[in-house]
Structures are given as C-alpha cells and as structure tokens.
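Sample intake sheet
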Amino acid sequence: MKKSAFTLIELLVVISIIAILAGIALPVYSKVLERSKATTDASNLKQLGLGVAAYLADNDDQMFSSSAVSSKFWPELLQSKYVTNWNVFKSPFDKRPNGNQTSPASIPLSYGVNVNVLTQAAKPAWDGNWSRLAAPSNLILMAPVITGSDLTFTGLAGTALPLPEPTAGVAKLGTHTGRAYINALFADMHVTALRYAPSTDTEAFTNTAGETGLKRWKPLGL
C-alpha cells in the first residue's frame, strides 16, 4: 500500500502562502475594526448631544457648568435621567475597564465638554444661557479627551471633565484614520469627524478663527 505525505518543501510552501494571506488580511481587518470604533464613537457623542438637548429643555436653556449640582457633575446629571447607560460615556477607543457602575468615581469618562462652555460667569460674559450662543452649528461642544500621544484616557464620571482648546500644531491626538481625525459634537447637536491639524486648516479640530471660522471654541464667538 502506497502512503502519501507532505514533503518538507510542500509544507514550507503552504506555510508561506498562509503567512502572505495573513499579512494581507490583517491590515484590512484593522481598518474595518477602526471604522467600527469610529462609528460607535460618533454614535456615543450623538446620544450625549440628545441628552444635553433634553437637559436644556428641562432647565430653561441653562447649560450645566464645571460646578457640581447637588453633589453631581454633568456626567451624573445626564446619566440620572437623559443618558442612562454609562457605556455611552466611554469611547470604544478607551481601553480602560468599565468600572463599578454604582460608583461614578470608578467609571471611565472619555468625553469632555468644551472648557469655555463649562466656564461661566455673569453677563456680559458667557453665563451658560444657551439662547445666547453665537453660531451653535460651528461651536465645538464635546469630543474625546486624550491625554497622551498613545490614546490615553484618564477622565472619570465623577468629575466635570473639560475639553481644552487644542494647541495649534499638535499632531497625533486624534482617535482614528492614522490618529489624524477625531469625532466632535457641535452645539447644534450634530456630530462630524474633523482633522486634528493646526489652526491654519479651516476644517481642523484646532481651528480657532473668529467670525469667519468654520470651527469655534468660544460660546459668544469672542
């Protein structure tokens, strides 16, 4: 009876073919996975935007600030009634464990509110009255807050995490597409992906131009 078997050369050829196919498939899979995360990230921001809109409707258009209300900062204010799922407050790019759902101090918070929106004072400065906004469709309201060049998140739900104005020229602080793009929620509650680029780029997350700018960081356009 004749026995059939692979020769060493045939085995090496098969292994080489598998390695080549894996090398082709892995980058494609990584891109698909990243696009999926970016879609979920944008969906989270959209849900948070709807929660903010509902909160404003219940509070005479008065936006929450960096201060606590009845010992609760804005994430807890939204979660208690308007965005009840804590998972929405965590970006899929945030690799931290979910934390104890009954303890906000341990729950990851990936998204921050524009520091200029949270910082409020008496008129004529920004006082948190949403009806006084200048060009809400251009005002960045929320986005993921990344604290390092390696996609590091450190925010917790028990705090009023501010979203700082990005420094012009800072690179690799986006979440996807080669770290060049970031999702942002605007004050009219629409979400879009923006390039994380210097302020000279009018389509960039860092753009701080005045009346003619497509992106704003100041509630009153100042």
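Comment: The two ends are 90 Å apart (CA to CA). The chain has one domain: 9-195.
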